[in-house]
Structures are given as C-alpha cells and as structure tokens.
Specification:
Blueprint lengths: L5 E6 L3 H17 L5 H16 L3 E6 L8 E11 L2 E8 L11
Antiparallel strand pairs: 1-3, 2-4, 3-4
Helix pairs in contact: 1-2
Protein name: Dynein light chain
Main location: cytoplasm
Subcellular location: Cytoplasm, Cytoskeleton
C-alpha cells in the first residue's frame, strides 16, 4: 500500500475507494516502470471501470495541468515520488452561468 509513501492532494472519495486507488497505484508501479505513465494510467482506469462502473479517467505523469468536472465522491489527486496521479469519474454537470456584461 502507498498510504505512507503517497502525498495526498485533493480528494472527495470515501475511504474505501481512496484505498482502492492507492492499492491499484501500488500494483501498477509494481508492473510498470515510473517512466511508463500511460501504462500506469491505463491499468488504474481499467480496474476502476471494472469495479465502479464505466466512465473513469486517469492521468499519470510528472508535468500536467487540468481543469475538469467530476462526479461527486469520484475524485482523487496524489503523488508518489515524482509521479502524480489524477483519477476521476467525469460528469456533464451544468456550467454555472456568470453575470452578463
């Protein structure tokens, strides 16, 4: 488990789902080199799709930005060493309308 090694960013996942994300990240890092972030992301995404239903997205890498909408309770962002992992289930939520000028 990566619990002691992972640096937690933002998350709104329940504890069991968060533990699954960390456990799968550990398994992915056992199977793939840290220089293969696409393979790591694919592994985590496919396992979350299998366990929690389709629609999961996973980004893994060392330098990236993001701006996204996610389902409530389905977002985690953490780092292991230099590798950052962002896992979320997408949402087509309404965009808040701002004031008109």
């Amino acid at each position: 488990m990566l619990e002691g090694k992972a640096v937690m960013g933002e998350t709104d996942m329940k504890q069991t789902m968060k533990e699954d994300a960390l456990s799968l990240a550990a398994k992915a890092l056992d199977c793939f080199d840290v220089t293969e972030p696409t393979q790591i992301a694919r592994f985590i995404k496919k396992e979350f799709d299998r366990k929690y239903g389709l629609g999961w997205q996973c980004i893994a890498g060392t330098h990236f930005g993001s701006f996204l909408t996610h389902c409530s309770g389905c977002f985690i962002h953490f780092s292991v060493g230099n590798l950052t992992i962002l896992l979320f289930k997408g949402s087509a939520g309404e965009v808040a309308s701002g004031p008109t000028v």
